[in-house]
Amino acid sequence: MNGWGELDRFLHTDPRDVGCEEAMAMLHVYVELVAQDAGAEQRYPGIAAHLRACGPCSDDYEGLLAAICDPSDGGDEGPRIGPLS
Amino acid sequence: MATPHRSSSAAPAARASLDAESGEWLRALRGSRAERQAAIERLHALLLRIARNEVNRRGARLSVTGPELDDLAHQAADDALLAITAKIDDFRGESRFTTWAYKFVILEVSAKIGRHFWRDPGVRLEAEDWERLPDRLGFDPAKESEWRDLLAALRRAVEEELTERQRRIFVALVLTGVPLDALAIEMESNRNAIYKTLFDARRKLRAVLTANGYLNDDISRRP
């Protein structure tokens, strides 16, 4: 992208943008929809708009998505106590 | 800001039915002392693994390495565990328990990296390095005659149209390159408030540049 495109992108604001607070409040739900290819952007257009514009929140989104997509994620194994021991 | 931050249009049900794994986590974390302790240890191990992966993922962009990076991961996991156990009643089953829990540790890593920035920032908050802006935006120096007026107009708009707070935030984030989370700490604010202020500044700058014929509503006027 050249300078004009980059400046244009930076100055573009999306009125659907929900901001950091709301995006982070629902991030765990959003990333699961993304991981399941279940229409996250369609269900939460305001969060999608925010993640396109906010570097720090986008970074957190990438990190959480990587965490739940990690093949060594032990989450499915549960706490390994009680009935799951 | 003039409220672009409206609510998400598809809020989930208040309390979804729990999957078996999440239910087991909740049962264990609310169980007997021994059960709870075992669950906490297991959860901490998971959080530490996620924190380590996350600091390594971001590591290339940080000035932190080796034991310091691992220490940061430990701190993030410890603090995330405290937050999770304190807020466990807030978990509404909208996602797997582990996804909800991992969010805490990812956000802790972010926050700690933001704080770490000021240990060796390498920049002055007030520095206004307009000379670096063309390069940061990707303008071709050989074509300066094509973008010089645009950036001069942008600078004028920043200096004349933005509020003092908007200008300070624009300068720190865009010209000086201070990370947003680090700026939030320095200004004793938070990510959301800083983002909203920059959002309003971006919209105001675009309106000014559009009114003066440098941009239009669809796409920038390119030479």
TrEMBL record, chain A:
Protein's name in the database: Zf-HC2 domain-containing protein
Q: Which source organism?
A: Nonomuraea aridisoli
TrEMBL record, chain B:
What is the superkingdom listed in this entry's lineage? Answer: Bacteria
Q: Which GO terms describe its molecular function?
A: DNA-binding transcription factor activity
Family annotation (Gene3D superfamilies) = 1.10.1740.10, Winged helix-like DNA-binding domain superfamily/Winged helix DNA-binding domain (1.10.10.10)
GO process annotations (BP): DNA-templated transcription initiation
Xref: NCBIfam families: sigma70-ECF
**Protein name, entry field:** RNA polymerase subunit sigma-70
- Origin organism is Nonomuraea aridisoli
